[in-house]
Amino acid sequence: MARRSFSEFGNALYTGEKSINFIGRRKTWYLISLILILVCLFGALLRGSPNLGIEFTGGSQFQVHLTEGQDRDSGAAEKVVTDVVPSSNPRVTELGASDIRVQTGSLKDDENQEVIAALAKAYNVDESEVTFSYIGPAWGQDITRQAIVALIVFIVFAAVVMALYFRTWKMSLAAMIALFHDLVITAGIYLITGFEITPAAMIGFLTILGYSLYDTVVVFDKIRENTSAGEVSDHRTFAESVNLGVNQTLVRSINTSIVALLPVASILFIGAFVLGAGTLRDISLALFIGIFAGAYSTIFVAAPIYSQLREGEPAIKEHDAKVLKLRAREAEKSDDEETVEAEATK
Amino acid sequence: MASTPAVRRARRSLIFLLVIVVGLVGLITIGVSRGEATWTPKLALDLQGGTQILLAAEQTDGKAVSGEQLQQAVSIIRQRVDAAGVSESEITTQGSRNISVAIPGKADKETLQRIEASAKLDFRPVLAVDVGTTGADPDNAEADTAKADTADGSSADTKTTDSKEADTKSTDAQKTDTKTTDSKDAAKTENVDPNPLPKEAGDQAWLTPGLQQEFADFTCKSDSALDTRDAPADRPLITCDDTGVMKYILGPVELNGDVITNAVSQKATDSRGNTTGGWNVQITMNDKGAKQFGKISTRLYGAQPPFNQFAFVLDGSVLSAPTMQGQILDGRPSISGDFTQESSKALADQLKFGALPMDFTVQSQEDISSTLGANQLQAGLLAGLIGLLLVVIYSFFQYRALGTLTIASLAVAAILTYLLLTFFSWRQGYRLSLAGIAGIIVAVGFTADSFIVYFERVRDALRDGFPIEGAVENGWKRAFRTVLASDGVNLLAAVILYIVAVGNVKGFAFTLGLTTLVDVAVVALFTHPMMALLARTRFYRNGHKFSGLDPRSLGAVYRGRAQFREPVVTSKGAGKKNARSQHEAERRQTIAERKAAEASGTVASSATGKES
């Protein structure tokens, strides 16, 4: 999109000259979202168990940092680990440019030390180049529980704060529905693709909550402005006012999503291609999906739902009826004029 | 340039921001000159390499630990790690039962075993006392007497001599863990143990020449002090008090700490019940403890020093070794001595919360090599720079010259964030982790978004026909509210994550929250004031076409009576006729607008858009 036309596009949206009918075609959006959610749910069911990282399953993990260009023969790792602990069932993966990762079940303290020594010897590196982590069996449940607590506490607080700020619980409810939509979709994509679920992915997941609402708040703020007492126009129904708000913030929504995605994409790139798996990749992957979902749901889910929630209110019904009546009258008048004009030109 | 209120406000804000930055730099400079602070934030283990252990503490009988017990456990573990000669370690609680231990560098097996050992409190009789440092330290005022705390029954009079109980070190001790000894120690004990083994814990027969020799060689600072833990409960123990001043030979364990049901510090009283101005520690024991302690006190009372002393041993070191001042049969001994209020409370807490034995299980352990740490740091910084660069390029593309303001604002935000992180790592022991770096990078997007919201609002105001300076003020009022609301949600998420979460998530939440606050500060104190000043320059005021604020390219329309031009909306179920008529209505609307505009004369009048 050329620069020029982008700012003109913004102008047209702002004045209402150009208007994308987000609210009126809500059934379409709901259907799209519903299909997405169903795909996510069924996909997740079909995939079966989620791919949980070692933090949730418990076990030992060794990462050997090799020098550049050193031969990464995973067979060697498998062999030494099995030599030390025959029952360990090691899983070996290559990470980033020069690392090897070995995951096993839970080993004992001294077995861990032995495996470290053996790996260092096998790859001819110093023992200090072997990164090791051991996760006890209870730890995963702990973080999961904490994450769920954080989720619930946040949702309750955010719902209250938003209801107070916007002075209507309906905005709050609409924002929460959109939030839930984002969570389901992000989780679904995670499960379907079989990405590993790690604590870092959970961080990303919890951050999506913040982002999804953040995005919604900005748009709702404009909607509130358009539908507040001083701004209500006799020429717009409530739904149209909401729609105008969405249109007016559309340029900002697009800009924001791009600007938020750029740094996340760079972490994702670096995390995935330079470091291999790890904190950075997992956080940014969840965020990457979540930002897309968040931007979509604000416009196509939160705003239409809010409009729908309010349209039934008597005061708003009355106002809308008035607007439509006025319109009909104007239409008749112009029809009359047209016929008059048409006759005059005969 | 005329000095309008807006300009004065802008200058004030910028000066205020400058004061904040200079103040932070000044504080850190003071810290650095005192040798306490550094000019870079401290790094967490995943960026510098090291060992991180997460322990879950629970009582040996499987019950959950209380908050006080957890604090007690932290100080026990801190003591253990310090005694192992590991510097720069960090020990903190996480959640209600976890203790996180971070040790830079690679921790050896012995240190790890020490850290994981169970902690318990027990009573042992004193068999010998000496100064803890061989090669007596001339500065050591204590080099002549043992601790002279005394234990007495309900209210015997208290003999106090000079005692070193006045230290208010919150807690405890080196380490004794009850791990089994290896064969080397077993061999050693053979020429130390008397034959046959005495039945009584306080029997002097324990003091074999071998043990005496060991005691003579023993110093509180030596490595052997770390092995005091290896003494099993049914053998004597050579150890020191928790300050490493005195060393003791203690008999086998006579009573376990779990008989203590309570310990409080209270004002000391004399025999007539008047307060003496001193403090003591009042212990309450259960029935079993009372019976046992009665026997012990009967034996010790009136015995030859040091055999009239008994020691409270927590995690291998002596908390207190008072002299028995009477028979105590009611299970309510009190320890008196040269206590202050603080030191008596500290001892009471140690006795009370250390009474129940605690087990530590390893929840997770991570050894991170320093090369991996350095790699991750580099990668994190690289990702941050790339992200920043992309955002900058995009803002130029979108906002042209205003892009420079975005860059300057981001730079100010970066400086503020950096200074704050450095400040917090000095004052609060904050450490930057990889997750923390991710938090900062993610926040770049949020920060840039505040500028976008602001610029878009200014553009909106221009479209409404405001002149540039008015548009800046008007756009700002609306934008700032939005920024506050949306950042408020963000901050809420960060705070809740920080409070609830464990491990890595905390570091992420901290930087996310911090950068959110920085964002609000920068937008209010830098971006908007700069914009207000820039709006007065000719380049922006005339809406140069590269300024990003060109009213012509923004198609400014005059909006009368707070109305936009009607959007073209086909309402649901409307027929063609309806659509056409709407179109007509809209056209009429614009005619009306045009008329209104003509009536009001100029286009540059202020619109009456109400602020909500």
UniProtKB/TrEMBL annotation, chain A:
InterPro entries assigned to the protein according to its UniProt record, in alphabetical order: SecD/SecF_arch_bac, SecD/SecF_bac, SecD/SecF_CS, SecD_SecF_C, SecD_SecF_C_bact, SecF_bac
Functional summary from the UniProt entry: Part of the Sec protein translocase complex. Interacts with the SecYEG preprotein conducting channel. SecDF uses the proton motive force (PMF) to complete protein translocation after the ATP-dependent function of SecA.
One GO molecular-function entry: protein-transporting ATPase activity
GO terms (BP aspect): intracellular protein transmembrane transport; protein targeting; protein transport by the Sec complex
Gene Ontology CC entries for this record: plasma membrane
Top-level taxon in the UniProt lineage: Bacteria
Gene giving rise to this polypeptide: secF
Key words, A-Z: Cell membrane, Membrane, Protein transport, Translocation, Transmembrane, Transmembrane helix, Transport
Annotated source species: Leucobacter viscericola
Family according to the record: Belongs to the SecD/SecF family. SecF subfamily.
Gene3D superfamilies, A to Z: Multidrug efflux transporter AcrB transmembrane domain
Membrane topology note: Multi-pass membrane protein
Protein export membrane protein SecD/SecF C-terminal domain ranges (all copies): 118-310
SUPFAM superfamilies: Multidrug efflux transporter AcrB transmembrane domain (SSF82866)
Assembly and binders: Forms a complex with SecD. Part of the essential Sec protein translocation apparatus which comprises SecA, SecYEG and auxiliary proteins SecDF. Other proteins may also be involved.
Segments traversing the membrane: 28-46, 147-166, 173-191, 197-214, 258-277, 283-306
Pfam families: Sec_GG (PF07549), SecD_SecF_C (PF02355)
Subcellular location: Cell membrane
Protein name as catalogued: Protein-export membrane protein SecF
Automatic annotation (TrEMBL), chain B:
Species annotation: Leucobacter viscericola
InterPro entries in the cross-refs: SecD, SecD/SecF_arch_bac, SecD_1st, SecD_SecF_C, SecD_SecF_C_bact, SecDF_P1_head
Assembly mode: Forms a complex with SecF. Part of the essential Sec protein translocation apparatus which comprises SecA, SecYEG and auxiliary proteins SecDF. Other proteins may also be involved.
Residue numbers spanned by region Disordered: 134-203, 569-612
Role of this protein: Part of the Sec protein translocase complex. Interacts with the SecYEG preprotein conducting channel. SecDF uses the proton motive force (PMF) to complete protein translocation after the ATP-dependent function of SecA.
Organism ancestry: Bacteria, Bacillati, Actinomycetota, Actinomycetes, Micrococcales
Ranges annotated as spanning the membrane: 377-397, 404-426, 432-455, 483-502, 508-535
Annotated PANTHER family: PROTEIN TRANSLOCASE SUBUNIT SECD, PROTEIN-EXPORT MEMBRANE PROTEIN SEC
GO biological process, alphabetically ordered: intracellular protein transmembrane transport; protein targeting; protein transport by the Sec complex
Protein name: Protein translocase subunit SecD
Family named by the database record: Belongs to the SecD/SecF family. SecD subfamily.
GO cellular component, one term: plasma membrane
Basic and acidic residues bias locations: 159-191, 581-597
Gene: secD
One matching Pfam family: SecDF_P1_head
